[in-house]
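Notes from hallway chat w/ T.B., transcribed later so I don't forget. T.B. wanted the structure written out for a chain they're using in a teaching module, and asked if we could keep both sequence and structure tokens in one place. Agreed to drop them here.
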Amino acid sequence: MMKGKLHYIILVFFCFLPAWAWAQTAYPSVDPKATFTTVDGEETDDASSGQDAPLAAHFTANPSNLGSYTVRYEWKICRVGQEDTPLVHRFEEDIDYTFTESGTFSIQLYATFVLGTDTIAYPEEGEANPIMVTINDSKLEFPNAFSPNRTPDGFNDEFKAKEYKSIVKFQAAIFNRWGQKIYTWDDPAGYWDGKWNGRLVKDGVYFLVVNARGADGRKYNIRKAITVITGYNTDNQDSTTTP
């Protein structure tokens, strides 16, 4: 009878051995992730191939198997090639950062797990795998004319930047030929619909003034004449304004 019990105990021990052994080797770790919000309000988890500034980022450590271990987090955001002078050095589990400068950046999480005299480091030596972010150089261009209609036809109805990238500061204004400011906007995605006081302006030449700065430090001081073509008819002057 004792022999049968002994066999049963040995059998149970070996049945549970794999789970016990796994529990002893499930060491604490982290799995750093990133979520980026683009200038268009879209979310992505990869900014390595190039995004426009400003780019909002949320970095999470995602720890697992902590058990009784205490953990110390350390985030470093560095411009590639300047790792000795990090732009950000933070010690929270999760961090937020907005990229406003062009270039390529590395984001590395370091974690130290401690339980008594037992210390585990992440990443192990030689196994760093940073999150990479590339911010595009800036660009800002405007057209020379546009053709708003009393009834918008969806074609060239708005005066706006025909291309912009990584613009972090922006201010634009439209002036009439007498130097009167008739419209302003402060977002590179914004536009002028050709109206003043709620009505279409008269056909003619107006003046655009833009002061902006790119993520690469480039300053834009744009001064240019723009032509408005509305299909204005002198026999129907009450349908337009004449600034």
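Follow-up for T.B.: The longest helix spans residues 2-25. Might be a good example for the class.
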